[in-house]
Every structure is written in structure tokens, then in C-alpha cells.
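Look over this today:
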Amino acid sequence: MKRPCYVVLALLATAGASPPSHLPEPPIPPAHPPTAQSAPIPNPDAQAPLSTESRGARVSVQDFRADRFGQALGYTPGSQFQTSEDKRPIQTPGVAVQVPLH
């Protein structure tokens, strides 16, 4: 008998503890909406800016070492986890080739 009373009391206490839900009044719509204006549409004559890049393949030398931040989490202060790539004194550069597909 006491258990249902406690459940009802707990439900009433949690429902009564919620903040009041006062919503602002919505704006009143105009009596006569404007009919002379059409809805805005995108410009069908718009053109993309001219590209100054060459459309051929590009080759560049890059360092592909990824900067990973926060690797030392869980280690003592001042220490940092090092991968085999990090232990190298000189990073081996790589070649990046970019070819457009259009």
C-alpha cells in the first residue's frame, strides 16, 4: 500500500518541479498580405567565377607526416608517445600527384 503512494508522490513531485512553460504570443499576421511581389528566385544567368588554375596534372613534393595532437594523454608530464615515424630524424618526403577528372 505504501509503495503506490510513494510512486504517486514521486510523479507529482517531478511534474511539479518542471519550469513554467510560458511561450511568447505569436505575431499577428497582416490583414492584407502583399500580393504584388513574387517570391525571390535564384538568378538563372549567374555564372561561376573564372578559374585561374591550370587544368593539367600537378605534381608536388610534400611531407605526409600527420600532426596528431594530444598523443601524450595518460603519460607522465613532459613525456610523449612516439610512433616509429616520429622517431626518424628526417622525414622522408613524398610525391603528390593531382589529376583533374573533368
Observations:
- The beta strands are 58-62, 94-98.
- The helical segments are 2-16.
